[in-house]
Amino acid sequence: MHSPPKLHSLSNMISLLGIGIDANSSHMMGTAEGPAAIRRALHSGSGNSSAESSVEVISHIEDLGDLPVANEKGSVVDADLITSAVAVQLAAGRQVISLGGDHSVTYPILRAFGAVHDQLTVVHIDAHPDLYDDLDGNPLSHASPFARALEDGCMTRLVQLGIRTATPHQRTQGERWNVTMVAPRELASFDMSGLEGPIYLSIDLDGLDPSVAPGVSHHEPGGLTFREALDIIDALPGPLVGADVVELNPAQDLVGMTAMVGAKLVKEIAAAMLVRR
Ligand code: MN
Ligand code: MN
């Protein structure tokens, strides 16, 4: 029998932050209810508080609740609120897991991380590259967070996994910033060990196949299995300084299964943060 991996610091706490914004979605509202649904699944009596590695995670997570966002399309005020809230946690030495909300939340989050890390690799699981220069005239759209973050120099490298909807425009955008785009069919041969830390992980639940994560606004068949997503978390060379789980749309979910997928990702991310700090 294996014993649980040793934690670097048992007093280490991870901050959990809910950001219920769906006003920057391009197709369907509903992701504003995502944080509450993931919390319910996280504390559901159907599971326990440990990760698969037996690391106890729930007692190492401090839930800060939801940010008081206005949830208005293109809101610079909301974006600034997110950046400053995350910056406060980073200044306190915390690792941060954020719950979306749509994917627009990741740009203001990454502004805070970019301000404290000279070198940062962002690993991004998604069906979509989210690199649009402009979509619907909203620079803060959930289709553009990584374009904005690259323009601002928030990261040194962006690696996108599970991408299966890249348009010629988004390919051009990717080439402009040397983005590594890995399609599902290329995933098995992509070597994660070469990634340089620290690492930030952004998981758009539509990167998973809709058969495992139907509770999203954009169903894009041909995605990752849940086990492939866990294997990615396991393979991150670390340290894992921050992460988000976004785009859960409870109105689209079936029997709460995508909320449970999101909650389990939070647990496995938290374990990776605690062990590979
Ligand atoms: Mn996305
Ligand atoms: Mn997506």
Overall number of strands? 8
User: What oligomeric assembly is this protein in?
Assistant: single chain
Q: What is the spatial order of strands in the main beta sheet? A: 2-1-3-8-7-4-5-6
**Estimated radius of gyration:** 17 Å
Chemical compounds bound to the protein = manganese (II) ion
Structural class call reads alpha/beta
Write out key terms for the chains shown.
8 strands; binds manganese (II) ion; globular; Arginase, Chain A; 277 residues; alpha/beta; single chain; 7 helices
What does this protein structure show overall?
With 277 residues, the chain is of the alpha/beta class. It has a single domain (14-275), classed as 3-Layer(aba) Sandwich (Arginase, Chain A). The protein contains 7 helices and 8 strands. It has helices spanning 34-42, 76-91, 106-116, 145-151, 168-176, 226-235, 257-275, and strands spanning 14-19, 61-66, 95-100, 121-125, 157-161, 180-182, 199-204, 240-246. Strands 2-1-3-8-7-4-5-6 form an 8-stranded parallel beta sheet, sandwiched between helices. Helix 4 links the parallel strand 4 (121-125) and strand 5. Helix 1 (34-42) crosses helix 7 (257-275), helix 3 (106-116) runs parallel beside helix 4 (145-151) and helix 6 (226-235) runs parallel beside helix 7 (257-275). The longest helix is centred in the C-terminal third of the chain and has 19 residues, at 257-275. The chain is globular and about 45 Å long.
Summarize, please.
The protein has 277 residues and is of the alpha/beta class. The chain contains 7 helices and 8 strands.
